[in-house]
User: What shape does this take?
Amino acid sequence: MIPRSTIIAWLFLSGLLLAASLETELSAPSAGAGEGVVLTIKVSGGRPDGEPVLPEIENLIIQPRGQSQQIRIENGRTTRTIVYTYVVGSQVPGEYVIPPITLRVSGENVISAPMKLSVGVGPAGDPAGIPDGKEPDATPEKSGDYGHLAFQMLERERKHIYPGEIVPVRIEAYFHANSRVSLKGPPRPDGNSFVLHNLTQEPQQTSRIVNGQPYIVVTWFGGMSATKAGNYPAGFELSGTVAVRDPAAVRRRRGAFDDPFAGGMLDDFFAPMIQKEVELTTSEVPEIEVSELPAAGRPDDFTGAIGQFEFAAVEVPGTGIAGEPLEMAAVIEGSGNFSLLEQPRPHPAGDWKSYDGKSAFAADDAASFGGKKSFRFRAVPTIPGQRVVALGFSYFDPDRGEYRVMRSDDEEVHITGAAMETDAAVAEPSPDDIVAKPSVPDLAPLRTSVGAVQGSEWWLAPRWFWTGVGGSGAMALVILGAGWWRQRLADPHRVARAEIGRRTKEAMETADRAAKVGDTAGFFVAARSALQWAIAQQQGIRPEAVTAVDLGGIHNPSVIELFDAADRFEYSGHAEAAGELEQWRERLTTALAELETQRKGRNA
Amino acid sequence: MIIRSLVFSLIAISSVSAFAIDAEQEFALANQEYRLGNFSEAISGYQSLLERDGPRAAVLQNLGSAYFRIGDNPRSILAFERALFIEPRNPDLRANRSLARDRSALFPEPAPAGWRGIPHRFSSGEWARLAIVSAIGLPCLALIRVMKLRRGKWVLALVALLDLGTLGASLVILDQRKSEDARAIVIADSATVRISPFEQADAEGTISGGQGVWSDRQVNDYVWIRSQEGGRTGWVKRDEIERIDVPISYRK
Assistant: This one.
């Protein structure tokens, strides 16, 4: 029988063992001004509710470098630790205290211990080439007289880097405090040996006294990687336009007055500005050793990823069919050169054939040192049965100087169907084989007739095509237009109108001729004919059917009078004098004009 | 004079016939190489036929099959896509393309449903033929109209409207199909997508071989692309992709 007190003590200790914990560590207790040390925060025994919130401390710079996860299995018990990494440093020497950090882990608050960091004057705090405290006398001529460029790796304890590895760097540009600067772009490597990554878009700008002179210091942070192994100078260059007051002109003005009380701000104000396009380069260029990655122990699936990486999530289906693709997914988190981190492969490798899929990267910080990369791809199982699969990838850890192979947890997959033939199992076809025996799912049979050449029809060429389309459209319009015109010409009403007009005109001409020669009979016959045609057009009847009775609806005295005169002459045979014939002619013209006006008015 | 014309015509016909016979023979030879398992020789035969005469759907289909046999999935997909450009409704070509895409582990392309799929069911050549036929129909209908029809005027009007509609739709579709010219296939095993058109630029990711992309402007040796799956954009090397529309070297 176990005593109750023992059980209680055992439970208490178990609780302590399983409780969440928060550890913080600085890689070094001191650093020079402008140098950085690595701060790691390790969370064990649970999952934190969020990322640690670091306090803001004046003059202390804290830059996140990503997070990673470590899994440890001891005596059958799995311990999971999440590690957050930061770079900490300051431009200003002094003693800094990082207060305790509180983090909520699995529902309980855990608190770290405070940390101290001493920042002294950095060994490379001031760039080389900056003159000592005297004011310059001469007019500045060279680029180096207008500014200076300095570069520093933040992990100063690193002796070498590896090709493809991204290391954090700091680049500073120094300009005289009274200068005006316009930069043409960020700094860039001088040469092809190094590449800059994720340089800060908005550099920091501070003031600093160097060798007794005030300077404006512009600072960029980013990553640098080498393209190949060897020893290379890490030089950088920066282009811009700098304007300063000509110190030589200031001195000349003071000399001219020869007044010990002359000088100062007013003299500087009136001194002319000198502007120059400058190309700053790092004056003391450090040589960086780029070591080849070790060949010993390099895993077969190593693709060049350098940093610290870990599986964050894995998705593998539970069932599948041999020979048919399955969709898998994985998320890998950490820090390093994610661009060279390729998708994990299923293991055991002989049981699967995988194909390149899609990937996406989400950065955790502005410099993109840390983040998560997700993969989605297809893999084909080749062997049926109850199988076990794990995803795996490898990378090189520069801090440890060794390759690491990562495997996800084993997942069970049930594969049905028949085993796939591997490529090695397919025999070479013998020359006597007429029909190929495919070892892969069948394609459609070969086509035996060569067929026509596509696009060979001349009328499909753009020039002829648009000519055909446009020409056909134009022809259709022309045909429609011609048809409308013909229809118009054949219109019976129009034909009748034209005929009436012609007859009326003929009669009028006959009447004119008769009047001239004094032919009374001829005149009145022609006059009545003209009037009959005009009335027939107006009333829509045949002209020979127009009689005096039909004149009742005309209401035109001239017309009636002419008809009466024509009848009187026809029945009586009494001839009128030639002079009166002229008057009758005028009345006839008037009557015809009035009839035309009446007709038009009626049609309107 | 007449005899001379006849002689020239006979010479022309026989030349065309000889040309056709040569092509059939070459095609048969290439097919024979394929059946014997000499896929590389078959590929050479199909390629030379395409270079010499121009694009033929049958040659492109067999070329795609040969690339498939040697495991070059991206070029296989490219050849099938080019053949489908000419014969979009060919079920064998569609099946072969699906097979090649499956083997490349590419996700199946969703086909446009309903009336949206109509423009893709016909090739550009077929739409152009339809446009020409509709255009020629217009003056014919106009001629019938002016022949003083007493009956069927409404039917004629309907037919004319249909004809105009067909012509308009064909021209619009042909204009839209111009964008098809910008489609390309990644022929490398995987193409690296970079943020700027030079080697040292950061890589944003990769596009696997056989995937379709839309290509745009070109700077130096790089082409701006947008992937059909996921819409990823960036610069890839010019020699890592190849456009689907039949290359100039295939055209006469």
About this structure: The mean pLDDT of chain A is 78. The first strand of chain A starts at residue 21 and ends at 26.
